[in-house]
Specification:
This protein is mostly beta strands and about 60 residues long. It is built from no helices and five strands.
Length: about 60
């Protein structure tokens, strides 16, 4: 799933729901930088964690 992530996409960290929703800043290989609403900028190891894509509510 992480392979489809691009800057601007919104995600959640499945093991850290208290971090809130985060916006992908960059993805270089397995290194994914995400700016989370409650935890700030974090670098995620995509080989160990599969981030969950958050669908937008733009109806």
């Amino acid at each position: 799933m992480n392979e489809i992530l691009e800057p601007g996409m919104m995600v959640r960290h499945p093991q850290a729901p208290d971090w809130g929703v985060g916006q992908v800043q960059s993805r270089i290989g397995d290194r994914i930088t995400v700016n989370f609403s409650e935890a700030g900028k974090r670098v995620i190891d995509g080989s160990r964690v599969e981030l969950e894509l958050v669908e937008s509510d733009t109806d």
